Amino acid sequence: MADADPGTARRYHDGYDREAVLRVYDGMAADYAVKYGAELREPDSDTEFLDAALAELPAGPVLDVGCGPAQVSRYLLEHGRAAIGIDLAPGMLAAAARLVPSARLVAADLLALPLRPASCAGAVASYSLHHLPRGRLGAALAGLREALRPGGVLVVITHGGDGEEWLDRVEGKVVLSRYSPAGLASLLGASGLVPELVSTRPPRPGEYPAEKVRISARRA
Ligand SMILES: C[S@@+](CC[C@H](N)C(=O)[O-])C[C@H]1O[C@@H](n2cnc3c(N)ncnc32)[C@H](O)[C@@H]1O
């Protein structure tokens, strides 16, 4: 892990600026909730993937990692699962609380999960891990694996492709990292999870224009 850059309080040598990510999502929370908040309400290929990936889980709550407006938490609650949504951005957590009043929501960084080891049945990271530089994904996956019970499942849904795109926003620099299905499977394997299901779909109108990758992996 890179050391903190002494020149800027929370920016790191790999360029990661967590506070910039927080500011970006705080600023867009209301619009994001309008645009994407109703996702997963109706059956589609994303819900089909979640249904299959989360069919067999140990007891316990499922984490909604970088929950945004908590579409995943709502899906989990409607499927009889306890859910815990975590997010950096207070504006996103406020939108989540409004849209999914029964959601359990926590302000937290996915790189420093405030959870006991082996306390979760599963975790779903839907479009949140791409905001880490690629070099930090291993640490994130290791932390998520640590939170899972044996037999627990991690689902990652993200933008397909390769490399890092750095977006220069007024809030600061924010990265968009992309992964191939095989690359993600290999990183999940390296973090001690056993890949199970993988599928892709084309982007829908209004989505970031990259193939979407969905992958699940289980803690042995
Ligand atoms: C593109 S939105 C995805 C929201 C929702 N999961 C979805 O599928 O639409 C990314 C979310 O991840 C959150 N996020 C990004 N980095 C994070 C981190 N390090 N820890 C916790 N949340 C993070 C952002 O605040 C934002 O709400």
Summed up:
This protein has 220 residues and is of the alpha/beta class.
The CATH class is identified as Alpha Beta
CATH superfamily: Vaccinia Virus protein VP39
Please state the CA-atom Rg, rounded to the nearest Å: 16 Å
Major β-sheet annotation: 7 strands, mixed
Residue-averaged pLDDT = 95
Q: Tell me which CATH architecture applies here.
A: 3-Layer(aba) Sandwich
Order of helices and strands: HHEHEHEEHEEEHEE
> How much β-strand is present in the residues?
25-35%
Number of helices: 6
Low-confidence stretches: 1-9
Which structural category fits the helices and strands?
alpha/beta
Q: Identify every distinct bound molecule in the structure, by name, code or SMILES.
A: S-adenosylmethionine
Shape: globular
Number of strands: 9
The helix content is: 25-40%
**What is the topology, as strand order, of the major beta sheet?**
3-2-1-4-5-9-8
Quote the distance from N terminus to C terminus: 26 Å
How many domains make up the 3D coordinates? Answer: 1
CATH topological fold name:
Rossmann fold
